[in-house]
Amino acid sequence: MTFFLQLLLTGLMVGMVYAVVALGFVLIFKASSVLNFAQGEFLLFSAYFLWTLLIPLHLPVWLAFLILLVFAAVLGLLVERLTLRPMIGQPLVAVIMMTLGLMALIRGIVQLLWGGVARDFPQVLPIEPVSLGGITLSQQYIWSFIIAVAMFIFFYVFFQRTKQGLAMRATAADQQVAQAMGISVKRVLAMSWIISMVVAAIGGFLLGTINGVTPFLGVVGLKVLPVVLMGGMESIGGAAIAGPLIGILESLAGGYINPIIGGGVNDIAPFFVIIIVLLIRPYGLFGLKRIERI
Question: Please, which residues bridge with residue 172 across strands?
């Protein structure tokens, strides 16, 4: 029973980090109906950028983190203005191909600047383990979980209580109606990309402090797709629920099934489950059910 609870809690905490990464996908899709395949690479670039601020430049953690957030916001604005805004009115598949191009470009820039070498973060979060009734948890996982939950609470309040958040919700529902009500759709789209980049930066920080920074960190962007699809492409709450579910599934598969068949099941189990979920609910657990009449 202790082993099961260990896997359960570890999966829950890792899953909340997945949910943070998935949040970046959801925010952009809500505002523009675009699935941003470059989200993982933005996370990768942010993690290496933060490592540069902390190690070679020796900046204090609080200052490095503040610079990272400002840099991510500026990067999000530049990406939206220079690459996505000229694509307005183009077929959706062309916009998606643009995000794939961004993914390859950013991956190449990371290889050019940092050589694709794994880097270790300094000790930012406490690493001493905490024992709870025979269950041992790393404080890095605990603090990452707390930060992730705080982020979702913040965004819930942002979308429910602020003028900007309500404008983004209106734009996500119907861009033409939102524009008729005086909402600047272009400004909302820019805001969605800025927030998405900031979320990616925070996700890079959390994953970097847990596992260090490697060239394969960008793969997390594809790894969280089951979270996005299961929760619903437009649902922030769905991402918050699906993330822990996927994390727990990975943890249990890795703990119980991997030793039997030799490993690898934890990587494919989420994709196997999402296929079943989409067969039953093609719009995800909490996605919007669209009815098209012909």
Answer: none
Cα separation, 29 vs 37, in Å, equals 11
Quote the pLDDT of residue 291. Answer: 53
pLDDT in tens, 190-210: 888 898 899 999 988 888 888
Q: From the options 1.10.510, 2.60.40, 2.70.50, 1.10.3470, give the CATH code of 2-280.
A: 1.10.3470
As a whole number of Å, the end-to-end CA separation of the chain is 54
pTM of the model: 0.87
Which contacts of 87-93 are long-range, i.e. CB under 8 A and separated by 24 or more positions?
A: 92/33, 92/34
SS3 119: strand
**What DSSP designation does 262 have?**
T
C-alpha distance from residue 135 to each of 7, 9, 211, 247 (Å): 9, 9, 21, 18
3-state secondary structure of 137: strand
Taking the CB of residue 12, how many other CB atoms lie within 10 A of it?
Answer: 17
Residue 275: count of CB within 10 angstroms of its CB: 11
